[in-house]
C-alpha cells in the first residue's frame, strides 16, 4: 500500500510523531554520513592532528635543506613539507620561491644570469630556477643566507627528499606555479607523477606516504583525472582569491577533488565557521603557517597552535616549529582552555 494512503487515514498527532521520527532518522543518518566521511578521509584527524614541518624545521635551519628536514624528523614531525619548483632540465627541486636569490648565493656564482622583472615602479633582478640546469643549481650554497653554521647545504631534488624521509616521515609536497612552468615548456604534474611512479609511491605501497598540495585547482583535478591519482590532496587558498571557494557551494566543489582545505590561518580568524563548514563537506582543514620567531615568541606560538587545534578544531597545521607542536596540551584539559583569538 502506498505510504501516502496510510498517512491520510492517521490521527494528526500520530502523523506529527511520525514526521518527528523521520526528521530524527534523517538527522542521525546525516550524522553517520558525516562520520563515515570523516573515517574515510585520511586527513580528518580528531584525535591526532597532523604536525607538518613547514619547509622542514625552518624556524631553526635553512628552509628546504637536508638540515631542516632532518631536524624536523628528530623533533618528531610525522610530515615534512617540500615546496616544489623545476630546473631548466625538468627536475623537481625543493624550493619555495620560483627564484634563487633569497635563499642561495646565485647572484655571486652566476651574476649575469638574472632576468629583469618589473615590481611596481621598480625593476629588480631575479634568478629563476627554470633558467638553471640541475648541475648548476647543485653548485649553490643554500645554507649560508641563514647562518654560516649551515654553509654548504644544497638544494635537494624531490628524489633526495624522498630518500631522506624514507622510513622516518611522510611527505606533503606542494606543486608551486604549475601553470608558469607549463608556459616554459615544463610539465610539473607529469614530472611529479613520474618521480612517484619511479619510487612506487603512487599507491602508498612503499616508502613515505605522499599527500599532495597545490594552490592550483586544475592541477589537482589533472592528477586525479589524467594520472588516476588516489593520493590525498590538499587545496590551498589565501587572501581575496580564496573568496569563491569559501561559500558552502565553493567548499562542496573543493571536496570533489581534495581531501583537505589548506587555508591561510587569517581566513579562519576572519570566519571560524570555515572549519565546521568544511568538515560538513567531508573536508579536513589544515591551516598555515604557525611560525616563530618572525611573528611570535614560543609561548605565544604554542597558544596560537592551541587555539587552532582546540578552539577551531582543525585537523593539523603547518608550522616552522614542529617541536612546539608537541607542547600544546590536550584539548579536553580544562586548565588548557583555548583562548578566543590567536
Ligand atoms: O603549503 C602550505 C603553505 O606552505 C603555503 O604557503 O607560501 O609557505 O608555500 P607557502
Ligand atoms: Ca608550501
TrEMBL record:
Domain GP-PDE: 49-329
PROSITE patterns linked to this entry: GP_PDE (PS51704)
GO biological process: lipid metabolic process
GO MF terms held by the record: phosphoric diester hydrolase activity
Listed SUPFAM superfamilies: PLC-like phosphodiesterases
InterPro entries registered for this protein in UniProt: GP_PDE_dom, PLC-like_Pdiesterase_TIM-brl
Protein name: Glycerophosphoryl diester phosphodiesterase
Amino acid at each position: 500500500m502506498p505510504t501516502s494512503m496510510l498517512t491520510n487515514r492517521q490521527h494528526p498527532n500520530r502523523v506529527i510523531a511520525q514526521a518527528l521520527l523521520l526528521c530524527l532518522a534523517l538527522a542521525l543518518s546525516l550524522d553517520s554520513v558525516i562520520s563515515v566521511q570523516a573515517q574515510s578521509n585520511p586527513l580528518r584527524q580528531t584525535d591526532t592532528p597532523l604536525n607538518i614541518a613547514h619547509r622542514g624545521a625552518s624556524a631553526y635551519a635553512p628552509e628546504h635543506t637536508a638540515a631542516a628536514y632532518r631536524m624536523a624528523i628528530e623533533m618528531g614531525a610525522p610530515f615534512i613539507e617540500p615546496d616544489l619548483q623545476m630546473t631548466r632540465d625538468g627536475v623537481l627541486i625543493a624550493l619555495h620561491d620560483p627564484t634563487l636569490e633569497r635563499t642561495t648565493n646565485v647572484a655571486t656564482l652566476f651574476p649575469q644570469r638574472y632576468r629583469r622583472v618589473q615590481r611596481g615602479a621598480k625593476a629588480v633582478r631575479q634568478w629563476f630556477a627554470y633558467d638553471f640546469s640541475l648541475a648548476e643549481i647543485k653548485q649553490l650554497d643554500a645554507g649560508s643566507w641563514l647562518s654560516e653554521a649551515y654553509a654548504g647545504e644544497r638544494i635537494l631534488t624531490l628524489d633526495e627528499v624522498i630518500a631522506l624521509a624514507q622510513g622516518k616521515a611522510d611527505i606533503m609536497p606542494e606543486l608551486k606555479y604549475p601553470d608558469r612552468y607549463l608556459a616554459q615548456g615544463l610539465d610539473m604534474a607529469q614530472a611529479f607523477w613520474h618521480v612517484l611512479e619511479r619510487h612506487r609511491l603512487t599507491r602508498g605501497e612503499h616508502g613515505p606516504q605522499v599527500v599532495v598540495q597545490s594552490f592550483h585547482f586544475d592541477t589537482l583535478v589533472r592528477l586525479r583525472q589524467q594520472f588516476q591519482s588516489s593520493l590525498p590532496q590538499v587545496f590551498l587558498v589565501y587572501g581575496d582569491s580564496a573568496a569563491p571557494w569559501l561559500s558552502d557551494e565553493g567548499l562542496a566543489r573543493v571536496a570533489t577533488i581534495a581531501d583537505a582545505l589548506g587555508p591561510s590561518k587569517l581566513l579562519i580568524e576572519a570566519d571560524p565557521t570555515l572549519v565546521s563548514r568544511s568538515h560538513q563537506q567531508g573536508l579536513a582543514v589544515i591551516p598555515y603557517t604557525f611560525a616563530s620567531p618572525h611573528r611570535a615568541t614560543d609561548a605565544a606560538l604554542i597558544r596560537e597552535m592551541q587555539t587552532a587545534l582546540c578552539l577551531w578544531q582543525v585537523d593539523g597545521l603547518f608550522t616552522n616549529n614542529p617541536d612546539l607542536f608537541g607542547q600544546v596540551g590536550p584539548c579536553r584539559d580544562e586548565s588548557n582552555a583555548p583562548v578566543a583569538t590567536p
